[in-house]
Amino acid sequence: MKKILFLLIFALVATSSFASKANSLPAVVPQPDGTMLTVLLQGDENISWYTTTDGMLLVKRGNGYYVAQVKADGSLAASSLLAHGPAMRGTEETNMMLLQDKAKFAKYSSKLLGQSGELPVTEWTNGVTRKMKIRDDSTLFPHMGSPKALVILVEFTDTTFTLPDPKASFNDYLNNETGNIVDRGHGENRNAKGVKGYFKDMSFGQFTPQFDVVGPVKLSHPLRYYGAGNDNMSRLIPDACSAVNDSVDFSQYDSNGDGYVDLVYVIYAGHSESEAGNSTDDIWPKSGYSDFGTFDGKKVYRYGVNNELNGRETSKNKLINGIGLFCHEFSHTMGLPDIYATSGAPGYNKDNFGMEFWDLMDGGEYVHSGRFPTAYTSWEREVMGWMNVDTLTDTAHVVLRTIDSKGDSARSCKIVNPSVKNEAIYLQNIQNKGWNYYLPGHGLLVYRVSYASDDVNFADNPNNGSRPRIVCIPADGKLGAIADYADDSTPDNYYADMAGDTYPGTSNVSSIASFTMYSGDALDRPILNIKEDGTLVSFDYLGKKIPSAINSVMVKDKATDRIFSLNGMLMGTDKTRLPKGIYIINGKKIVL
Prior knowledge:
Blueprint: E1 16-19, E2 27-30, E3 36-43, E4 48-52, E5 57-61, E6 64-70, E7 76-82, H1 91-98, H2 102-113, E8 122-125, E9 128-131, E10 148-155, H3 166-175, H4 195-202, E11 210-218, H5 233-244, E12 264-268, E13 286-289, E14 294-295, E15 298-299, E16 302-307, H6 324-333, H7 346-349, H8 378-383, E17 390-391, E18 396-400, E19 412-416, E20 423-430, E21 443-450, E22 470-472, H9 492-499, E23 515-516, E24 522-523, E25 527-533, E26 536-541, E27 563-564, E28 570-572, E29 582-585, E30 588-591
Parallel strand pairs: 10-11, 10-12, 12-16, 17-19
Antiparallel strand pairs: 1-13, 2-3, 3-4, 4-5, 5-6, 6-7, 8-9, 13-16, 14-15, 18-26, 19-20, 20-21, 21-22, 23-24, 25-26, 27-28, 27-29, 29-30
Keywords: Hydrolase, Metalloprotease, Protease, Signal
GO molecular function: metallopeptidase activity
GO biological process, one term: proteolysis
């Protein structure tokens, strides 16, 4: 088995967590004055905030959304003004919006999270961080074989399970391998398969986790005791474990004998705070680690939590949650980092993009309401030791099938940067079938990884900082995050633009002249004659020189400060950090 190195972070007092991305699709919410307002929720459990469709910062207070005031330290506070959409906004409200210092808020958010673009390696010692070597973390959940995880169903004094038989429903939700899930009246069969089936497919049968479901148990506190906008896992996890202690032998969940329970996962009654419009009393899905006490001689350390029901609390149809959130958080417990930018800045600078729906660890957890989460990328499967990705070295005609297909063609390949260690261009065939059935596009997906596959650290956040380290190279030259489409009332334009990411794609792009790497240097390894024939993708690797891939870059009008390389790679917004060369700004070639 391939050994993967992960960062070991000791949490002596604090609880560290890694949360799911907010579902940033627009939501229409009622205001206390009877008006309706379209809002977007951005960020994650660590930093989250609301905006209107035209970018006004909001603070949710009770059942209302108020114009935010940016305080001297950059944090947000609710004003006394109830927010309205652009067409209904008064002069006082408009003026207060103009006074919002979004740059200060972005700086505050990033500083609060301690983010940088240099992938700091830290260890917590009495609250002080210091650099340390990345090492093997035996407390991570195993990612080979059939290890067992303990899943506790939890409800509260004021919030109980809607599902009539939650244990049966979540046993299928977690352990189904084949699909055809029994519908018990709350959309259980809308999930393509269970979580076990997802990871069996991702690992080609090498990883089939077993989830032992216990409960439900009712805790002696209301939901807000554990949530209320400041989730308290130091209360929830010990209380859940204590509630099942008499019926569960925790010593059966230490597969490697290191003294730690491999994983305790709590599924709680009700909805998620990560959905726009839901109560701040709700808990935000997350995973992490801390010292939660000892049960049956084993330390409870690594945990995950997510919700029972899908979508908005106001929905009349109460449906079981999609498995995407669980798959995302469960992947954290095995060591994978978030691929989206977790700092506050990207929502306003629009200069830091990741993989969006193309990756489970970005927005792929929400595809088709999380019921068809995006399949692992070839890079992620390589990291987990589930597959080898072929390296292209010589001139070749390459035919790619999808990763999960059977046949003689290659499943994925990469172009390694000979000048920089741990940097490569990955090429992967995406088709609308299986787990990727509901993705917005198909064809050749090309993405750059400037991040060591053998030193993955679940706390890295590789796409924070001024430039992303894992990023799609779009065929149409149009990079975008869902935050770019805040002024749209529906996600249709976002989906349409994502459909242009793959090759040949909606723009019929059949070649890539060169690739701009993280440093800004060009990797002169052209691929030509990109074709899609049925479910196969083919191209010619290396060949004669071809013109630059783009002459201009299409971006949303409000992102006018973004800088692109000649082949469409986003380089950020800071000219001072770029090497000398020719770049595209506002559709014009600029020499720096």
